Amino acid sequence: MIEFKPVRLEDRAVIERYTMPSGICNCDLAFANMYCWQAVFHSAWAEIGGFLVIRFQIDGGERIGYMQPVGEGDFGPILPLLREDAHAHGQRLRIIGLTDEGRDTIRRIVPCHFAFESDRALEDYDKVALYSPNNVLVYYNRAGVYAQLGEIERAVEDYTSAIKLYPDFANAYIYRGRLRELLRDPQGAKEDRSIAQRKIAEYRSRLNDSTYSIYADTTQRFDRLLSFDSKFAGGSFDRITGHNGGHEEMRLLPLFKFTLMRPDSVPAAKPYHLQRVDDFKKRIGNEYLTLSCRESNIAPDTLVMLDKQYVQELNASNPAWTVLFERAVTQSLIKQYTNSVSTYSSAIELNPSNPFLYLNRSTTRAEMIDFISSIDNSYQRITIDSDPANRLNNNSKRTYSYDEAVADLNKAVKLFPDFAYAYYNRANLLALSGSLPEAFEDYTKAISLNPAFAEAYYNRGIIQLFMKDTRKGCLDLSKAGELGITEAYEVLKRYASLDN
């Protein structure tokens, strides 16, 4: 078995004697990275037959990987030693960061013994990016492939895309920082390391908080994840999607929340009017604030600018709950979910009797769960099949709970019993948790408070299909269509085609 040694400062000269003249452009071979991150990746090194060999734990997990041996000549003769070392740890041999020459060497020395993933992986990731442009994992994983292939600039672009989609993604900052070092951008690398360390510290500081504990280690899970399926393109409250595995999918319509939207893009006002909602919007005093289940069309750059403005306001004086609320809204819209929930909590401490603060915190918690579950699990989906009543379908075991989000809605209902949107939101979360009868009751309550609640009719119709009450489900969907939910007619048409 090979005797590997931990990376120490005094080993730099020996290690760089191999790496510097190698011409291999791979940030994992940079001594600084090996030394600084060995606590995470447990990097170790050895000299074998005139080659430098680096062993590490992939993504800091249990799988062992070996960098392509670095040295002059043919590393083929030491492959049996690497395999023996891997087998001694109960694992197969994985060689990471192969150059074209390294791949050719392996194919020549041990033909048909290795599977090579990069070329095929790039093709797969490109296809997924085409159909799921908002899938953060596509860009993150493709960036890793580009880095292994030495296409550093393209890797940086993909890490940047992942960060834009999910600004709390600490691992993306870490790896982008490494690549920026290779591109001779020390300032950018320093900024990325600083942001990553801050976000990791934020996660760790909340480990004892039940709201946050399930999110703390998400940056360590990405090696297990990625189904090439367009279901990752959006949240689990998306509307009807297209074909998937030979079935048609239906999704519940989204949660309602106070969000920012330009007035000309706000859907036509419903007959349902609540003076208390109007008073709240007047108290906040933001012309873009509206209660909606639609996506905001405010540009991300504008949202970031607004967020900075709220930070200045909060730093200039004692924090007002109204400013905290506005900042929490913008944080949620730019997908800084953990910070948004924390800011809502601060607003609630100052105004604990306001039901709308609980509504929005609940929605943000649910959105955060959906994002994390899109990484760690398949979305829980409703699929029309030969027996639609039994197809509340969960492709992999869900390990997350909406309990905290439901608790916030329970509080909102207690504070404002006539708030139809709180019952509707709670019904959505209960349905996604598998509690269909309870969800039905809440949708019914929402409709009793707002008889023209189109979204509630639509979602109640959907869950009734899965409670084997097909006739009433179709009646609800028909009513939703009459009230303006055009998707309802599409569902009815698809459903009818299955019965024929």
Any overview of this molecule?
This protein is an alpha+beta fold and 500 residues long. The protein is 53% helix and 9% strand. The protein has 21 helices and twelve strands. The chain has helices at 12-19, 31-36, 38-41, 79-88, 100-109, 118-131, 136-148, 152-165, 170-182, 186-205, 275-284, 300-316, 321-333, 337-350, 355-376, 403-415, 420-432, 436-449, 454-465, 470-482, 487-499, and strands at residues 5-6, 44-48, 51-57, 64-67, 70-71, 95-96, 243-244, 247-250, 257-260, 289-292, 380-384, 392-394. The strands form three sheets. Strands 1, 2, 3, 4, 5 and 6 form a six-stranded mixed β-sheet that branches. A four-stranded antiparallel β-sheet has the order 7-8-11-12. Strand 3 (51-57) and strand 4 (64-67) form a beta hairpin. Helix 6 packs antiparallel against helix 7. The longest helix is centred in the last third of the chain and has 22 residues, at 355-376. The chain is elongated, with a radius of gyration of 26 Å. It starts with a strand and ends with a helix. The model is unreliable at 207-249 and 376-399 (pLDDT under 50).
Summarize the structure.
It is built from 21 helices and 12 strands.
Helix coverage percent of residues?
A: 40-55%
Q: What integer is the average pLDDT? A: 78
Radius of gyration from the CA trace?
A: 26 Å
* Helix/strand class: alpha+beta
Number of DSSP strand runs:
12
What distance lies between the first and last C-alpha atoms, to the nearest angstrom?
66 Å
The amount of beta strand, in percent, is 5-15%
Global shape:
elongated
Helical run tally: 21
Main beta sheet strand tally, sense and closure:
6 strands, mixed
- Enumerate the spans where pLDDT stays under 50 for 5 or more consecutive residues: 207-249, 376-399
